[in-house]
Design brief:
five-stranded antiparallel β-sheet
Length: 576
């Protein structure tokens, strides 16, 4: 093993290394493996290194992907490797400005060493890894495209997992313990990645065994016309299989508002499909390394805190210095408004209120700020921006503020199951009820409920006439019922002033007259007198010092009032 003494500036997420100033970069994915080991310091512990520390040591001491792989593999062989997740194996994507590799590692049977292999991704190819080993036949004689420990073949032969008569050793078949978590947990994401990056490649979405059937290649070639930009990588990491037969935003499990997120469950008999984007992500990164740029600007880390489908990716450049503090803090147990992680986590949880509508606003915000970030990075690379560090920090601060502002805007806009905005005067609220999708209502038995009045009106008669300047018959019964609920919710305070039954009003004038005494006694400048029926209609009278006017307020469009029928109670809502 070579001696390494250099020290590098390293971008990391507090756990794994991401990129150093040489543009050496890493991505990580846990995988199942046949031989586990336990960390030193624990009962029966034998192994020193987990993949986290291997990436950090390599990023401090190596500049090329090949050098980093040899260093990590050698350290693990010498001091032992353990998988952080229950002793499992690990996969790393390791790249620099000229090469990209896929690196697999697991413990050896003694728990004091390691078995590892790395395969070079061919030029103009793309490779997808999703929580499972993906390297198949390994050729120890092809040192340009393969690096590996001697234990790869020695252990397989010793344990009867492979013999030379089998031909080249299939690493995944030999050392993987199968798909991680559940069927399709890994393979569906691999399928999704390749269908996005190589649409002409018709790969199967279903299979019997991902380990045995080999439905997906290690990598696929891309034509010049198929080259990907950073926005394509963002989109790939935001996927819930939208637009495919496996779209998680569809079906009963998505709820009435089409959420693709599936939270954990204590029921061991079953499994949710795993999407690419997932609510429990701490962060997602897309890393670039471009040999065609000047050395300080070759590497860029695009960091997205929390759920990748609801985050805003921001650019960080290692050579510019320390990252903004807002991207270095975030305790899941304590809300912190200075934390980018918490800002985006807050938004992703708010989105569950009404996902199908709210995700549109979230995506628009992400696209806006990511476009601005792309322009900023281009200005830094071209030398137009003279102060990269200050510009990057300022952009990150604006994104943090925008994410918290988005959370507030989403709450106001979609509170209480409606869509609320300011009216033409810029002051008065205007709201509409968004209701539930009709197909979901049918599936949950909503139609089995009984609504009053029944079709044809009470006692088979017609509904009461509606009066006012708007003329007769202006609103459906359901709209009037929702209006009553909205007014009661929107009032700052509500005080019942009379519970005695009131007679039916035969005209708008008599309804006004009934409300005037209560209005005249009140001191606020505006008094809304709500004459509420028992599940039938609603009249709202707005009184000022000058006169009593009549109008609808709430989610219905503004209209003149409706006459009432039956016995009523009077409520006065004060809005100063």
């Amino acid at each position: 093993m070579k001696s390494h003494t250099r020290f590098a500036h390293v971008a990391d997420d507090g756990n794994y290394a991401i990129q150093n100033e040489c543009s050496l970069m890493f991505g990580e994915s846990t995988a199942s493996a046949t031989f586990p080991a336990v960390a030193l310091g624990n009962p029966n512990g034998t192994a020193l290194f987990c993949v986290n520390e291997l990436t950090r040591v390599a990023s401090e001491r190596a500049c090329s992907a090949r050098e980093a792989i040899e260093l990590m593999g050698g350290l693990a062989e010498q001091h032992g490797f353990f998988g952080a997740d229950g002793g499992a194996g690990e996969v790393l994507m390791v790249g620099d400005t000229t090469e990209a590799w896929v690196f697999h590692i697991l413990s050896d049977p003694t728990g004091k060493g390691a078995i590892w292999v790395a395969q070079r991704v061919p030029d103009d190819h793309v490779a997808v890894v999703a929580n499972m080993f993906s390297i198949r036949e390994v050729d120890p004689d092809d040192t340009r495209n393969f690096l590996m420990s001697k234990s790869v073949h020695a252990v397989a032969r010793q344990y009867g997992l492979w013999s030379s008569a089998d031909g080249l050793l299939d690493f995944t078949k030999t050392y993987s313990a199968g798909e991680y978590g559940a069927k399709y947990y890994s393979g569906r994401r691999v399928w999704d990645g390749y269908r996005r990056m190589k649409p002409s490649l018709m790969l199967p979405a279903e299979y019997d065994s991902l380990k045995q059937d080999r439905p997906y290649p290690f990598s696929v070639p891309l034509l010049t016309s198929e080259r990907l930009d950073v926005q394509d990588w963002f989109a790939a990491h935001r996927s819930h299989y939208e637009g495919t037969p496996y779209d998680l935003s569809k079906g009963l499990a998505a709820g009435p508002f089409g959420t693709p997120d599936r939270y954990g469950t204590s029921d061991p008999h079953g499994a949710w499909p795993r999407s690419v984007a997932i609510y429990r992500s701490a962060m997602t990164w897309v890393v670039q390394a471009n040999a065609g740029l000047s050395e300080p600007h070759r590497g860029t880390v695009w960091l997205g805190p929390a759920d990748s489908s609801k985050t805003i990716f921001v650019p960080l450049i290692v050579t510019a210095g320390e990252p903004p503090r807002s991207y270095t803090v975030g305790n899941p147990a304590k809300l912190d408004r200075s934390s980018a992680y918490w800002a985006h986590r807050y938004v992703q949880n708010l989105a569950q209120l009404r996902y199908s509508e709210m995700i549109v606003d979230i995506q628009n915000a992400s696209a806006h700020w990511e476009r601005r970030a792309a322009h900023l990075v281009e200005s830094i690379r071209s030398g137009i921006e003279p102060m990269p560090k200050q510009a990057l920090d300022a952009h990150a601060a604006r994104v943090l503020a925008a994410a918290w502002r988005l959370a507030d805007e989403l709450m106001v806009k979609y509170a209480d199951g409606g869509l609320t905005s300011l009216g033409a005067d810029g002051v008065s609220p205007r709201s509409v009820d968004l209701s539930y999708p009709s197909d979901w209502l049918a599936r949950v038995g909503y139609g089995d409920g009984v609504r009053y009045p029944p079709p044809g009106g009470w006692d088979g008669g017609a509904e009461p006439p509606l009066v006012g300047p708007g003329g007769p018959s202006v609103a459906a019964n359901t709209e009037r019922l929702q209006l009553l609920e909205d007014i009661q919710l929107q009032s700052l305070a509500a005080t019942r002033v009379a519970a005695a039954p009131l007679p039916r009003w035969s005209s708008l004038a008599s309804a006004k007259a009934a409300a005037e005494p209560a209005a005249a006694e009140s001191s606020p400048s505006i008094v809304s007198v709500v004459l509420a029926t028992s599940a039938l209609t609603t009249l709202v009278l707005v009184a000022t010092a000058a006169a009593i006017g009549v109008r609808f307020e709430g989610r219905a469009a503004e209209r003149d009032a409706v006459a009432l029928r039956g016995e009523e109670s009077v409520y006065v809502a004060f809005a100063s």
